[in-house]
Amino acid sequence: MSDEIDDLVWSDEPIHRSTRDDNIDLENIPTLRINVEEKTFVPLYNVAVEAWIHTFAADITLTQTFINLEDKPIEAIYVFPIEENAAVYALTAEIDDRLIIAEIKRKKVAEAEYNEAIIHGQTATLLRQSAETLDTFIINVGAIPPGKECRVMIRYVTELDLIDGKSIRFVVPSTIAPRYNPELGHLQSPDNTNAEYVQSTPYTISFQIHVERNGISRVANLSHPVNVSTSSELINISTQDVALDRDFIIDIHLPRRPPSMLTAVEQYDSTKYAALTALIPHNLVKSNYMKSEFIFIVDCSGSMEDENKIGLAREAMLLFIRSLPLNSYFNIIRFGSHYQILFESEMISVDYNEETAKQAESLSYSMKADFGGTELLEPLQYLKNNPPTNDRSRQVFILTDGEVSNTNKVIELCRSMSSTTRIFTFGLGHSPSRSLVKGLARATNGHFVFIPPGEKQHS
């Protein structure tokens, strides 16, 4: 995405470049890096989110304001998280009373125009989606004049998730966890930034959420204290001074007996309308578990120690083991920098009986976050190389915080197994990778669940 270039007063001072092309680690996000040698940053002054929720879709405006306190013009870069299935449709930047409106262009063309503008001291912006993780965007903004403010506004739309047929969940990701890169052998943050800084930043984020009252019973916040006001048409939710240490989550509860169909109609022109329809099944046919194979893949990497995510995994595994149906087959694979299989068997899985259940429970009680990095691709490749027999249907349950950098490769591998395997993903912690957790389930016609710390698990 590139803008219509706006002239800026030329300066004799060199423009300090970001590290986008130099591949040098940044030490703070989402602050803007401007001077590699001196390690100085453009401070983030304000973050604001405003959202309008229409049934099962949301229109969100994210505004971030930065200030250049240096005595020279700069080019800056920052990274921000976004919902996995969101679509960005507008980007504007205000710099020194100039409004820059972005337009969509091919990546190479946009980058060439942007670089040309920066070289000549002109104002430009560049927005890119992370090619590997899918749920982060990177923006370059330049040139910001000395002592001036930069206000960047991103607008995007996203679908909302239906939870247990009873409520609609709205999520604004506000943290970017470092992702393990198997090629480098260590954690790497998006665009080589250090995401751990977010948890200790002095700035906060504010929210204004407007929910149409039509057909909803109540609104509950699962992540932060909020202020709520109502009118005949809207429920307004607001909060100030929210720390960027967890995702912002709101559940919009439907009536006790929700309708079988929800429809939303929006007029976007004097003569044009857009409509969306969602079907909500009430009586699901129970699956036949005869000859089913259940494979549990549990993340035991070092990052699972944070927020006691490994404790959530242990609790979930014990629930799974005690809920398996008779006449089924199962196995457990723990993974990190390597993977270990509980039952070594030519058939990949073993009979579920009293003896194997006790072994699985014993392993679950003792699981620790001591497997190093997060290399999910290898255990999944093992399953692909050993497909289920013709008389078995394979269900794979993945419990992870999703801190991997090769999200695309993992999803595409699972997509190639979708004819024989369904994957059910469980995102653990305050800010799991939503693109990974949702993407794996969607690629294989499975289902996804997010389990934040403190949430009670049930069958």
TrEMBL record:
InterPro entries: VIT, VWF_A, vWFA_dom_sf. Residues 28-158 form the VIT domain. This is Uncharacterized protein. SUPFAM superfamilies: vWA-like. Gene3D superfamilies: von Willebrand factor, type A domain. Residues 293-459 form the VWFA domain. It comes from Rotaria sordida.
